[in-house]
């Protein structure tokens, strides 16, 4: 992939560095938007299969044009701003919801050396930028000047903050054993060790020694993105559609784009931090971006599988799981990993 991009880099890089940076941004965002659109189709197809239904199959061959039809429909729908709403903040809410989920991709490595900004504090940047998403939800709920959106936004804010804490503690374990905030270094460190030397690379990835943290991170990622069974933010029987009640057209669509973009972001981060990123699971197969794509697709399948399987949790159960189960478990495991690294039984020395 680097060889394919090298002629373009040679053409734009030395003369127009700003244009070359813009080309790289478009090369990331354009496929991401296509992936988001077709993730909605994949979700409907996968859940249809699990529930013994057909799923969308009318628009285009095998229903492949359904996301385009949905996009065109939303594009031509009227954007209605409630008369009592704060118009500026009402429009700003969806923008603040989707902007962090797009900006976070600046530091995601797709292959060795294939990253937009290979900064040393990449993981810190991710934590900072993704924590901004909650502001879009709160502003959208408050600016609507309506009770249901405000209640939904308060629920969303509490849930997102609660599970960010447990995700943060899970990441501390990854930082301890990787000794780096650079995402490329974190992936590279997973390709070293006794199992990697034996050609069993998948046993040297972080998921095995940090298995409890891997499970906590995946479940917290589902809750953080407000996906079922943690989707009480838009519990139809309670708060209608949560903070999105008053939105229509493309402002409504931006919240859904943000949700699905966050699903892909959490999945690719899980692959990078715990599943070896672009590294091959066995020594006789070459590393490459295709491994990262396959691992990300597997985590996304878990998101869809959870939605098709579990009923919606009660709100107090969600809060109890976050604060009384996940945070104590992650705190204990941080201590266990720290002691393990300092002991003679350390596998990272």
From TrEMBL:
EC number: 7.1.1.-
Membrane topology listed for this record: Multi-pass membrane protein
InterPro entries given in the database record: NADH_UbQ_OxRdtase_su1/FPO (IPR001694), NADH_UbQ_OxRdtase_su1_CS (IPR018086)
Principal EC category: translocase
Keyword field contains Ligase: no
Catalytic activity entry: a quinone + NADH + 5 H(+)(in) = a quinol + NAD(+) + 4 H(+)(out)
Record carries keyword Cell membrane: yes
Subcellular location: Cell membrane; Membrane
Listed GO CC annotations: plasma membrane
Pfam families: NADHdh
UniProt-listed GO biological process terms: aerobic respiration
A GO term for molecular function: quinone binding
Major localization class: membrane
Record keywords, A-Z: Cell membrane, Membrane, NAD, Quinone, Translocase, Transmembrane, Transmembrane helix, Ubiquinone
Transmembrane feature ranges: 20-41, 89-110, 122-144, 165-184, 204-223, 252-276, 288-309, 321-342
Domain of life: Bacteria
Function, in words: NDH-1 shuttles electrons from NADH, via FMN and iron-sulfur (Fe-S) centers, to quinones in the respiratory chain. The immediate electron acceptor for the enzyme in this species is believed to be ubiquinone. Couples the redox reaction to proton translocation (for every two electrons transferred, four hydrogen ions are translocated across the cytoplasmic membrane), and thus conserves the redox energy in a proton gradient. This subunit may bind ubiquinone.
Subunit comment: NDH-1 is composed of 14 different subunits. Subunits NuoA, H, J, K, L, M, N constitute the membrane sector of the complex.
Family, similarity comment: Belongs to the complex I subunit 1 family.
Protein name per its UniProtKB record: NADH-quinone oxidoreductase subunit H
Source organism: Thauera propionica
């Amino acid at each position: 992939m680097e060889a394919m991009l090298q002629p373009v880099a040679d053409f734009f890089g030395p003369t127009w560095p700003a244009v070359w940076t813009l080309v790289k941004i478009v090369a990331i965002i354009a496929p991401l938007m296509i992936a988001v659109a077709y993730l909605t189709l994949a979700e409907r197809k996968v859940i249809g299969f699990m529930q013994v239904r057909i799923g969308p199959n009318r628009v285009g061959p095998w229903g492949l044009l359904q996301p385009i039809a949905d996009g065109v429909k939303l594009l031509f729908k009227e954007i209605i701003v409630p008369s009592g709403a704060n118009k500026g903040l009402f429009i700003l809410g969806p923008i603040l919801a989707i902007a962090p989920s797009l900006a976070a991709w600046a530091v995601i490595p797709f292959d060795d050396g294939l990253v937009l900004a290979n900064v040393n504090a990449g993981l810190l940047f991710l934590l900072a930028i993704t924590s901004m998403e909650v502001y879009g939800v709160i502003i959208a709920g408050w600016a609507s000047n309506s009770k249901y959106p405000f209640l939904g936004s308060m629920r969303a804010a509490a849930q997102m903050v609660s599970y960010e804490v447990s995700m943060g503690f899970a990441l501390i374990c990854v930082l301890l054993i990787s000794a780096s905030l650079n995402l490329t270094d974190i992936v590279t460190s997973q390709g070293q060790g006794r199992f990697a030397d034996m050609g069993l690379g998948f046993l040297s990835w972080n998921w095995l020694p940090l298995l409890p943290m891997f499970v906590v991170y995946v479940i917290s990622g589902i809750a953080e993105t407000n996906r079922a069974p943690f989707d009480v933010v838009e519990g139809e029987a309670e708060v209608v559609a949560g903070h999105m009640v008053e939105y229509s057209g493309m402002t409504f669509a931006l919240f859904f784009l943000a949700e699905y973009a966050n699903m892909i972001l959490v999945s690719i981060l899980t692959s990078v931090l715990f599943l070896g990123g672009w590294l091959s699971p066995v020594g006789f197969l070459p590393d490459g971006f295709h491994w990262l794509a396959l691992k990300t697709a597997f985590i996304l399948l878990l998101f869809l599988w959870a939605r098709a399987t579990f009923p919606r949790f009660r709100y107090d159960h969600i809060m109890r799981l976050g604060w009384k189960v996940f945070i104590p478990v992650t705190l204990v495991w941080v201590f266990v990993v720290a002691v393990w690294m300092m002991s003679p039984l350390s596998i990272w020395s």
